[in-house]
Design brief:
Blueprint (H helix, E strand, L loop, with lengths): L5 H11 L9 E6 L4 E2 L6 H11 L3 E6 L5 H17 L4 E3 L6 H13 L3 E3 L7 H10 L3 E8 L14 H6 L13 E7 L9 E10 L12 E9 L2
Parallel strand pairs: 1-3, 4-5
Antiparallel strand pairs: 1-2, 6-7, 6-9, 8-9
Length: 227
Amino acid sequence: MWSGGKDSALALHKLLQDDRYEVVSLLTTCNAQSQRVSMHGVRVELLERQAASIGLPLEKMFVGEGGSNEEYLEELTRHLLAHKARGVTAFAYGDIFLEDLKRWREEHLARLGLQGVFPIWKRDTRELIDEFIALGFGSIVCCVDDAHLDETALGRIIDAEFVASLPAGVDPCGENGEFHSFAFAGPIFNQPLSIEIGEKVYRPIEQTHPGSTLTRGFWFCDLLLRA
C-alpha cells in the first residue's frame, strides 16, 4: 500500500531485504478529479515515474472527491480481491504506531482472507528517521497540517536539519499526519528523480464541529519533474 512517502519507502526497503516476501506491485489511492495522490497532493505522473525508477508495477486506485467511506471501502475491497485472485496473500503498510488504524486494516483484510504486514511497526520514530537519512534516502515535504507546521516547511528535504527544526510535539516521522513527503532517491531507486518546487497552495477544510480541532487546513507544494 504505497503512498510514495518516506514511511512507505522505508517499509518497502525492509520488505525487499526480507526473503520471506516477494513484492509484486505498489497500490496507491489517488483522487480521480485532481489526478493526484490522496492527502499528499503529488501528481500522478510523478508517482508513475517514481514506481518506474523503483522497478515495480504501479496500480492506482481512484476515489472521487468527497466520496463516502462506504464508497472508498467498496473500491478498496475490489482492488484487494483482484490481487488475491492473482495469488497475493498479504498487503504491507508503512504504519508505525497508530493502533486504531492498524486494527482496522487487519480486520478488513481478515474478512477477505488476507493478512497485513507492517515492516516498521512500533519502531521508535526518531530512530526510524535517523535510519532513513543514514540509508541515503531523499524525500521532500509535499503537504503539512497547519495545526503543526506552516508553508515554510513545504519543499524542504527531510534531513537532520529538518528534523531538528520540528516544533516540540511534532513526530519526527509525521506519524500523526503533521506532514507528508515524496521519496525521490535512495537504495530502492535505480536512479534518483530530479524534482523542482512548484506552487504552494492552501486548502481549508470544512469544520463540521467548529472549534473541535486545531486543523484549519493543509498546505500543499506542487512537485514537478525537472526537465
